[in-house]
Structure prediction request, 392 residues.
Amino acid sequence: MKIERIETHVCNARMRNWIFVKVITNESGLFGWGEGTLEWHTRSVVGAVEDLSDLLIGEDPSRIEHLWQMMHRQHFWHGDGLVRSTAISAIDIALWDIAGKVHSVPCHKLWGGEVRDTIRTYCHLGGGNMEKFYETPVDNAKQFADLAQAAVADGFTAFKCMAVPPTMTLEGQKPVRAAEACVAAMRSSVGPEIDIMVDCHARPSPAMGLQFGKALEPYGLYFLEEPCWPESVDGLTMINAAITTPIATGERITRLADFRDLFASRACEVCQLDITHVGGFSEARRVASLAEAYRISLAPHNPQGPVSTAASLEFGFSQPSYIICETVHSDVPWRDDVVSEGFSVEKKGRLVRPNQKPGLGIEINEDEIKKHPFLPELPQRVFYKDGSVGDW
Ligand SMILES: [Mg+2]
Prediction:
């Protein structure tokens, strides 16, 4: 068995271009799907996949770790920059999809079989609709409460919102009180049993992140995500130590050693590694082993396309410390036309039962992808009131 060809299929899904990667073997009908969606870097990732293909054409796709090492270490530059690492991820996921198909088992069976019966999922407020999630103004607490109720009515027992506005390194109490009002409104509208997550998008400085964390602590968040820049390990550590709310981070980290430093500093309680950026399943499993040593939970970042979701679920059925799967379902109305999935979702509670089909268990409709060709992603830019640059 040899790798014959590697294709990229780009599908514009409004906010993101889903980048699907198809690794095709010389055996009839045997191929695998991966995903390496990286907003505002689509053409770069497509190019990186093309560059990596030179290393892989003619190689045996079953030697996944060997090929991962080649992709990561050969050509001199290690493959842990964001673009290269995303391209490696997409190919690695596709190689594991092939491995599952070769052995006629779902991917999670290759890693020891399922460790749980179901996986809980959470949604974004608005179900992945870009405007509702990213552009609901933080001074409109009622809208947050209404969207929270809609998520619960949709069957979810957990949801995430962006109730923390962009702030300069220091600002007064106004944004903190606005965030608190939003979370208070959501908590009173959904009651105590629903889990609420707030993603700060690494907008605050450590000092502001601490203020937001303290203000939101009484509302019992499931986790508080990226309360400051991910590279500010000391800031994350300070906040995680100061509040009972678990801190989540990791979606932008691609280096195994950086995860080690994060965990060793106790900078988070929830690791949000992104399987489509960190280096695919091969590297995600190494990160998970590191996290296990610190009893840190896994909740992979997954606002991307349907291959990424299938990958997160396969990973979750094999990982004891995986707690919840991030999902979007209303980003585009034709999402289900592009993919057919091997797993099933119970509407009440939004619990997923494991895929029984080989590999990722998905089929991708390439004709549907062709209906949504590449478009540049919509710019998302933040400037503070004084005109200086902020974080989106
Ligand atoms: Mg996030």
User: Anything to note?
Assistant: Residues 199, 225-226, 251 surround magnesium ion (CB under 6 Å). The chain has a mean pLDDT of 97. The chain has two domains: 3-104, 110-366. Residues 82-103 form the longest helix (22 residues).
